[in-house]
Amino acid sequence: MNKKTVRDIDVSNKRVLVRVDFNVPLSNGIVTDNSRIKAALPTLEYLINHGAKVILMSHLGRPKGFDDKYKLDPVAQTLADLLGREVKKVDAIVGNEVKEAVDKMGPGDVLLLENLRFDEREKKNDPEFARALANLADIYVNDAFGASHRAHASIVGVSQYLPAVAGFLLEKEVDTLTSILEKPERPFVAVLGGSKVSDKIGVIDKLLDVVDALLIGGGMAFTFLKAKGYEVGSSLLEEDKIDFCLQVIKKAEQKDIALYLPSDVVIAQEISPDAEAMVVSVSAIPQGWMGLDIGPDTILVYQGVIKSAKTVFWNGPMGVFEIDQFSRGTEEIAKAIAQSDAVSIVGGGDSIAALKKFHLEDKISFISTGGGASLELIEGKPLPGVEALMSR
Ligand code: ADP
Ligand code: MG
Predict the structure, then answer these.
(1) 196 catalytic residue (yes or no)
(2) Staple 236 to which of 5, 70, 219, 243, CB 3.0 to 4.6 Å?
(3) pLDDT digits (tens, 9 = 90+) for 335-359
(4) What end-to-end distance do the CA atoms of the chain give, in Å?
(5) What is the residue with the minimal CA distance to atom 10 of ligand 1?
(6) Any idea what the Cα angle at residue 30 is, between residues 24 and 33, rounded to 5°?
(7) What is the pTM of this model?
(8) Ligand 1 pocket, residue 322 CB under 6 Å
């Protein structure tokens, strides 16, 4: 990455305003998954150890104005436990209460501001709000990769008023995702699934320029199968994306990329744990039935391709993995990726949820913390939050 990072500046005794992505799931006031908080620890520990006064800011959920349910107090508690030191939490984002708390900070102290989205000016990238945030500090650090595709005040606005550098998480995300696009170890296999073709058009397009093989599963497979002339019953189908799928099929042929579609699928008449389910060839999906997972023959073929890979990128579950009888495809493919010797990179909220469900997170080389941000980076779109940082 050609951007400056916390390593490139002197942070000692400086007030450092860090944008983190602590948008974590909460249940009854408790953080139920602390992965995003853990992911920020390298940057936070570095700043603490180098004597910075660490002021943290994040959004959480989609509150419309102030909302008790989305206060960051549980996040402060979880962070304090992980850091093994006090994290002071203020109930405001900017203003006198915050200024006073910052004035009392010493080197190594950590302060967490209230949920940025309690102020509607955050999403509007309001310059006055950005300036008020910037006034709290001497240096700005962006470590919120997962929010860096949004031009919000805490991501872009604030960087106009302070020296702005990247944290280690942001650096690692950008470096890892760009490196597989620029110089992947080959064969490079991409596994794409999830619900819709339309969500992933840019990603599919970009991956066709770099991969050696593309494995398609999930709901999006049925628009591809329809494009190939199969009847898909009441499976998820995007009629208006059939042409795009045809182009993908053609481009793959021209570029000699092995494009795999399911040969068999698990079908049912409704998406329910109690639905009667069966395995059929993709040429035998009856009317009124929908494909909800890839079948056993497809799993075998996909496992073989993954086994031969040196780099694997996975985004999108192979089926409705939330329901046991449609989860086998996702589980087996996730296992194959986890067991392979390849560099494995996984992105996407639901794909990560699947990894967690099957206890495979530890066996993946890199799990991207950014859903939308990782996909946009792979599509080749500039991320506003990265562009805004100082270049080397
Ligand atoms: P990610 O969050 O990893 O990018 P997506 O959001 O694109 O993944 O897709 C995940 C969703 O796709 C899951 O909720 C899953 O149930 C759904 N899905 C997967 N396969 C199918 C299918 N065959 N039919 C309908 N929905 C599917
Ligand atoms: Mg999703």
Answers:
(1) yes
(2) 219
(3) 999 999 999 999 999 999 999 999 9
(4) 9
(5) 194
(6) 40
(7) 0.92
(8) yes
